[in-house]
Design a protein that fits this description.
mainly alpha; 1 helix; elongated; membrane; transmembrane helix; transmembrane
């Protein structure tokens, strides 16, 4: 049996999660969803009945 000299590189990846950044992103996308549904409600209630 031939012995091989193999160097194994170990990588330790630390996931850095900033809670304030996550919260700000959540608030931003929640605002997008609220604006979208508000515009949709406006179309259904005021624009579509006039057609």
């Amino acid at each position: 049996m031939v012995q091989r000299n193999v160097d194994i590189e170990e990588r330790h990846v630390e996931k850095k999660s900033d809670p304030s950044h996550v919260a700000a992103t959540f608030i931003k996308y929640a605002a997008y969803i609220i604006i979208f549904f508000g515009a949709l409600y406006f179309l259904v209630e005021y624009v579509l009945p006039k057609i």
